[in-house]
Design goal:
Elements: H1 2-6, H2 10-19, H3 24-31, H4 37-41, H5 44-49, H6 52-57, H7 63-71
Helix pairs in contact: 2-3
Organism: Paenibacillus taihuensis
Protein name: RNA-directed DNA polymerase
Length: 72
């Protein structure tokens, strides 16, 4: 949800979804959605394009990983 909210403009959402490997037609449909941020974050398109591995590559730190670093 955080990344979807950061991509405020339709054009930004469209280009980022295409960069993550979503077909242009589907990327355009989902970029123009009027659904809320939380509901869109659970959509199949974002589940496929922004999975946990992709988020780690982007530098997102998961709480469980941080907890393991701090406790050991």
């Amino acid at each position: 949800m955080v990344y979807w909210k950061q991509w405020k403009r339709v054009k930004t959402r469209f280009t980022n979804l295409k960069a993550f490997g979503i077909r242009a037609k589907q990327a355009w449909e989902y970029a123009n959605t009027r659904k809320g941020y939380w509901r869109t974050s659970h959509s199949p398109i974002l589940s496929k394009s922004l999975d946990n591995n992709t988020l780690k590559e982007l530098g997102f730190l998961f709480f469980s990983d941080y907890y393991r670093q701090v406790t050991t």
